[in-house]
Design a protein that fits this description.
mainly alpha; ABC transporter involved in vitamin B12 uptake, BtuC
Amino acid sequence: MIDLLRDLFFDYTIRNVALGAAILGVVGGALGSFAILRRQGLFGDALAHATLPGVCVAFMLSGTKAPLVLLTGAALSAGLGALLILTIVSRTRIKQDAALGIVLSVFFGAGAVLITYIGGSGSGSQSGLDRFIFGQAATIVREDVVTMGILAALALLVVALLFKEFKLLSFDPAFAASLGFPVGRLNVLLTMLIVVAVIIGIQAVGVVLMAAMLIIPAAAARQWTDGLGMMLVISGLFGALSGVSGALISATGANLPTGPLIVLCATALLVLSLFLGRSQGFLWGWIGSRRNRREALRNSGPSMPHGGGAG
């Protein structure tokens, strides 16, 4: 363990991967909390899959695999997918779950076709585009970490400035509309922030696993608190802990992929939270049930019979 911590501080690759994963965990956990509360857990999954054709098109137009170029294409494609989902839900009779499935399958199918086309053109073997499907955290360099940090800071700043509005939108959008809040614009803005989280994470965990980094830390944090502010903090901490833990385990030399390990670490925290969570964990719920049962038995104990003798 000491050797791993020493490598974390002195090894260039491990340090970048750990920092990038921690940044992803913080922003993914915080924004995933809103998605969970709005029953949009699979929204991030659809947006992550929607990035794939954007990555391919950006490569085809630029001829370069520079991360900034590819991530710009991913952002534009995911943004288009998000707006398409919102438009389908608001303008048609198609429900949100169906809209998510449509966008996810169509965009990912288009991305798979484009990757196959690029591979057949003779440049696919050098492009490395397939790493965006399952992630390749080892390719994260210092410039990527800086870019991820800037994007994450901007997203979290917007969340902090509009926390009350996002909170009201998450719990009672109809009441927010009655108060005059621009619910439609806030909904689009919150969706775009989730797009930012997806863009930060696809290089580390890929489009397939990105949804886990939005859902699992937030679901784990929900077991510990009933307050939204504290939930965002705990979710971000769980996400960062999962990212750093997965990066360190991957660095042990066992040749294990970093992205899946990050998700497995987050899952371990979720399982632990389901049992020990102070707010909704099984253990505290069982203790509370036993306490209430004993209290009920004590209050309904046998009472003294009323006098009715012959006198």
